[in-house]
Known about the structure:
- The chain is of the alpha+beta class.
- Helix content is 27%, strand content 19%.
- The chain is built from 14 helices and 18 strands.
- It has helices at 42-45, 51-54, 143-160, 193-199, 207-226, 279-283, 290-305, 315-326, 331-336, 360-367, 396-409, 420-424, 427-430, 447-455; strands at residues 4-8, 17-24, 27-32, 37-38, 65-66, 78-79, 100-102, 107-116, 120-127, 132-139, 172-178, 181-187, 229-230, 239-243, 247-253, 260-261, 344-346, 355-357.
- The strands form six sheets. The chain has a six-stranded antiparallel β-sheet with strand order 7-8-9-10-12-11. Strands 1, 2, 3 and 6 form a four-stranded mixed β-sheet that branches.
- Helix 7 (290-305) runs antiparallel to helix 11 (396-409).
- The model is unreliable at 1-84 and 433-474 (pLDDT under 50).
- One of its GO terms (cellular component) is cytoplasm.
- This is non-specific serine/threonine protein kinase.
- Keywords: ATP-binding, Kinase, Nucleotide-binding, Serine/threonine-protein kinase, Transferase.
- Its EC number is 2.7.11.1.
Amino acid sequence: MNTAEYSGYLPELCPIWTASATYSPSNPGRIYWWNSRYECSPKDRLKDFYRWSAINWRRNSYDKFDCRATSGVTTTAQSTTHSTTTTLSSGTYQLVQHEILTSRASSYEVLEFLGQGTFGQVAKCLKRDTNEIVAIKILKNHPDYIRQGQIEARNLKRLSMEDTDRFNCVRWYESFQHKSHICLVFEMLGQSLYDFMQDRNFSPLRLACVRPILQQVAKALTKLKSLGIIHTDLKPENIMLVDPVHQPGRIKVIDFGSATHVSEAVCCSYLQSRFYRSPEIILGLPFCEAIDMWSLGCVAAELFLGWPLYPGHSEYDQVRYISETQGPPPEYLLSAGSKTGNYFNRWPDSTYPLWSLKTLAEIEAEMGVKSKETRKFIFRSLDDMVNIAGLDATDLLDRHEFVDLLKGMLTLDGDERITPLQALSHPFLAHLGQSTYHPPRSKRLPVFAQMTHRLCTFSEQASAVPVALNMGTHHSSGQQNDGEPS
């Protein structure tokens, strides 16, 4: 098989990747994509939109997975054997450029492949009757993903009855079946927060930029909570900039493929990406919408630091990092958790404490895997975040208020964690919009990018009072579910 190949490299982020596209000599106007397995950079691979849903590649876990990309135009592709099948052995639909996907109400022309993940793939499409550009998520033809797609469609249908623009959730248009594959049609959005941070080399954001993002996501979670919906996978990849040029600073929450109703919440290790995974899920406790607030707290800290607060290489690392910064979970939570014994030793003869965190040596002996230090900042408490270098005197009050809100969102007991509505009333968010600073616009940069370049950077070399480790390795956003199905 001859292929047209492209290789890209992003220093300190991931290995070189190669992507290929082919076309049929009998019909050179049709480009075919097929499964290959490569390690690749989302920046090189994806364009314009849903990198959120298109990949399962995550920070500090360079697992190989299906990766697809086009070589550009059909005339530059080289010939290969024409494939007559539309579904690959993995269950993935074999997309064809300019193919027409038809629902009962509309038809869509496939313009461009945007990427793929465990669930399937995402394509940029033209809605032919209105010439509107949309994104279509095409799920694999597999019972698990069909069932997940039905759940996602149900959640999206319920959300579509609300004003999604007002509550900062992605707009869903319809779902339909194409050749036994479930297709979900969404509005086209801009880049994710992760990609935005990556484009800035993960420079920390000033709180003036963190505040509106946090406020908008909290508003989205307020609506989800009122509907009894738990997102379960909130992270920078699933928070999208709507339009950096025409709507600077506007964001929307996306990807409801893992969402569940609170009445159907069942604890399992597949919920929440690891860096944003709440104590309830790690310990195997009953949970509710409060797990999304924990994730939001982790996202807020990451935007402020330019690095994940708890970038654990394993669930044990997550527990260890949390315990070293915030103290261990309360005894009553540890005693109630079905998975507590994985990470803690119980001392039945002791009156207090009953539980103690297992040592690194014990974990390595039990699991045969060495723990890795992946933190850039090691805090003795969340209050230490106030003292990070690069402090602007005008930021001092903001920092204290931000950390106070962060402590509310990262409360270890989900029942005591601050709610989205309470967060919106917190002083850090309540005075949103009082800033009088208006950055100059640039013809070369989108407004939001210009704003963040001028307004949202610490000093050139931001360093922390706590120890900074592992400085030679960039993170890659959002560790996804320990490599498990999303």
